[in-house]
Design a protein that fits this description.
The chain is mainly beta and about 700 residues long. It has one domain: Maltoporin, Chain A (Beta Barrel). The protein contains six helices and 38 strands. The chain has a 22-stranded antiparallel barrel. A five-stranded mixed β-sheet has the order 3-8-9-6-7. A hairpin with a 4-residue loop joins strand 23 and strand 24. The protein is globular and about 70 Å long. The two termini are about 40 Å apart. Keywords: Cell outer membrane, Membrane, Receptor, Signal, TonB box, Transmembrane, Transmembrane beta strand, Transport.
């Protein structure tokens, strides 16, 4: 295997503008989905059509040195722009649901979702820092109880990479016991071709079930040879949808507005030295039920939610100097929920009006050096420093305007400060053996002004975590490789876990760090021209076991609010396989995960384990029409919830088989339809009633989705 280095408001909406422009361009045509001849795939130039639908042949940029997914010694999935567009996702959970080992948990609306990777991740407290989420390198971490952890718009992104397993902690942050999700926003260069100085992209979409509407306008420009600029504006609004039984699912609304502005100035003409800046904001303002995660407390509240980031960056490859390839950035992030009109859910405690404010300043500096040792060895060494400081504030007020207190018993105010250093090497021998050692050191400080339950100021908590790893990949020949990794990852407690306290359950200032010992082994196959000329077959199998000591979870009355529970074990199998000719493609992904609490005499199954799941995708490309027709299937086994004390089954999620059809059409030629893309899908064709195991609400019944885009 070769390696390759706004809701419903008055005025003109973005949706209306996008649809009007699309209609004016006469792009509404018989809908069907297709493969873009100009799409940026990572396969060789001779491959196109169905072959470019393959996933394991895509470049991964989040693993140190860029490499093809099938040549990484861990499970990793890349969604490029074509994948994101084809998903026609209303929420980030919709976008990630088809990735093996990844599930959306909690609610089903844009607000209310958390994520689960390999059995780690909850939808209730949303204080689960075992999964790291980054947007353009900026870490997003939000903990409001029963609210959801990440709020954004799928249309903002051109690439999503999901790195499963804790070995990703080395480059991205302490405590990624489950994995890392990296999002990359769009750039002007994605829309400018050749000598273009200006490009405009408009898109409108709709969905029958929830009466969903979305639209976006993107303007990309190159005012001078060395300056690229981009401005993007999008809006989405969706009503509550109906499940397969025809019942309205509440809460399932998904709405929001987003804006993205980016600029990059290239120093010199080689495009390898640049300074850049970006500003991104997503916001929502609507009435929702209080408990978005599980719909347990269904009293309505009004929430104005804002997620914004501002970044300045510097990239310099130092052409001709193998020792220096520098990337640096400084970012400010603000995630804030202003919650008002809470008349039904403990307004004198939670607050009739309250705000949840998370302000974060982050810095990152890294350098990659290249070394050559004789004719057979090449090495790439990445070193870096990170800083992270988050201020969390939570003012609360009664209905008469009187101030209650700063923070709550289960959501204390406080500050988190973290300093980190990391080093990762990639040593390659004859393009056959790759050895990737790495280590990360994190120093964390937690501070809180007052414990609400006692009215006293608690001690500051400080700790240090060291997370080493080593991964090895060996290519037996051009068609077969084997890989394995061993990593020890430390996750230090967060503010909620240390300082949450009630009169019946004290704070726990002596919580121990969670320590994960993870082992992964696997292999991959890759064949070209196996059954037909220039066809491709890829397969990758990963087996993992993750033992977590000092697992942190909620305590019971009489014990600390959070406490360590001894040991838990997570283990499973992930299998990906795909095959394509120039006209036909098919992909399969299987995920089997198991997990037990092993702190007592008897192993008790964990309630965060997803159902065993198989997803299939098959399609046919008609190159002369640039048309793709396809089918998707999602097959899940029944799964259970358990009594955490006895292990007895308390509830069951039924198994399900869901089928969807889709089409993509991209007209060719020098007509008015040039640079148009039309996507049509029918999800849940059989209108089946089903609920994903880690979701609190049933999934959407049959729905027809149509999106039309045009690039000028």
């Amino acid at each position: 295997m070769s390696k390759t280095y706004i809701g419903r408001r008055g005025g003109v909406s973005v949706l209306g503008l996008a649809l009007a422009l699309a209609a004016g361009a006469q792009v509404i045509a018989p809908a069907a989905l297709a493969q873009d001849a100009d799409s940026k795939t990572d396969l060789s130039a001779e491959d196109n059509g169905a072959v470019s639908q393959l996933s394991l042949g895509k470049i991964v940029v989040s693993t140190g040195v860029d490499k093809v997914a099938i040549d990484t010694p861990q499970s990793v999935t890349t969604l490029d722009q074509e994948d994101i567009d084809n998903a026609q996702a209303s929420t980030i959970g919709d976008l990630l649901e088809g990735i093996p080992g990844v599930s959306a948990v909690g609610g089903v609306s844009g607000l209310g979702q958390g994520f689960n990777i390999r059995g780690m991740g909850t939808g209730v407290a949303d204080s689960d820092s075992r999964i790291l989420i980054n947007v353009d390198g900026v870490s997003k971490f939000f903990e409001q109880y029963r609210m959801g952890g990440f709020f954004s718009e799928p249309e903002l992104y051109k690439r999503v990479e999901v790195l499963r397993g804790p070995s990703s902690s080395t480059l991205y942050g302490a405590g990624a016991l489950a994995g890392v999700i990296n999002f990359q926003t769009k750039d002007a260069s994605d829309f400018l071709r050749g000598d273009d100085r200006l490009s405009v992209r408009v898109k409108g979409s709709g969905e029958t079930n929830a009466d969903a509407r979305a639209g976006s306008v993107i303007i990309a420009g190159r005012p001078s040879d060395n300056l690229d600029v981009l401005f993007s504006l999008s809006s989405r609004v969706s009503d509550d949808y109906k499940d397969g039984n025809g019942n309205v699912v509440v809460p399932s609304k998904a709405e929001g507005d987003s804006v993205l502005a980016k600029a990059r100035y290239y120093v010199g003409g080689d495009k390898k030295h640049s300074v850049w800046a970006s500003a991104e904001k997503w916001q929502n303002d609507s009435y929702q039920v209080y408990d978005q995660a599980e719909a347990f407390a269904t009293t309505p509240v009004r929430r104005k939610t804002v997620n914004e980031s501002y970044i300045v960056g510097y990239d310099n490859a130092f052409e001709g100097n193998d020792w220096l390839d520098v990337k640096a950035q400084l970012a400010y992030s603000n995630m804030q929920v202003d919650q008002t009109d809470n008349a039904g859910f403990s307004p004198n405690t939670v607050g009739y009006n309250s705000s949840y404010i998370y302000k974060t300043v982050q810095g990152r500096l890294e350098n990659t050096s290249t070394f050559t040792f004789g004719p057979d060895w090449n090495a790439f060494v990445t070193t870096g420093l990170q800083t992270y400081k988050q201020e969390r504030r939570n003012p609360r007020y009664r209905q008469d305007g009187t101030y209650i207190n700063p923070g709550a018993t289960t959501h204390p105010e406080g500050d988190l400060t973290r300093y980190s250093a990391f080093i990762q090497g990639e040593f390659i021998w004859k393009e056959k053996l790759t050895i990737i050692p790495g280590v990360r050191v994190d120093r964390v400080k937690l501070e809180s002004e007052k414990l609400i339950a006692t009215g006293t100021k608690p001690d500051t908590v400080k700790d240090t975590g060291v997370s080493p790893k080593i991964a090895v990949l060996y290519s037996l020949n051009d068609n077969f490789n084997l890989f394995g990794s061993v990593s020890r990852t430390v996750r230090m407690p967060v503010l909620d876990e240390v300082y949450s306290a009630t009169t019946a359950q004290p704070a726990n200032l002596t919580l121990k760090n969670e320590e994960s010992d993870n082992i992964e082994v696997g292999g991959a196959l890759a064949f070209d021209s196996l059954f037909a000329d220039r066809d491709k077959f890829h397969a990758k199998l990963t087996v993992f076991r993750n033992d977590v000591d000092n697992l942190i979870a909620r305590g019971t009355t009489g014990s600390p609010y959070f406490r360590n529970f001894g040991k838990a074990r997570f283990e499973g199998v992930e299998l990906e396989a795909e095959y394509a000719t120039r006209s036909f493609f098919t992909r399969a992904a299987l995920s089997l995960v198991d997990g037990d609490d092993r702190s007592g005499a008897k192993a008790i199954p964990l309630n965060t384990i997803p159902a065993d799941e198989l997803t299939l995708n098959a399609g046919y490309v008609i190159p002369s029409w640039n048309l793709t027709l396809g089918w998707r299937g999602e097959f899940a086994k029944e799964a259970h919830k358990y009594n955490v004390t006895t292990g007895a089954v308390t509830s069951t999620t039924d198994d399900y088989n869901i089928h969807s059809l889709y089409a993509v059409w991209k007209p060719q030629g020098e007509t008015v339809l040039r640079d148009v893309d039309v996507r049509l899908s029918v999800d849940n064709v059989g209108d089946e009633y089903f609920r994903r195991h880690l979701s609190s609400l049933p999934a959407e019944g049959r729905t027809v989705k149509l999106s039309v885009g045009k690039t000028f």
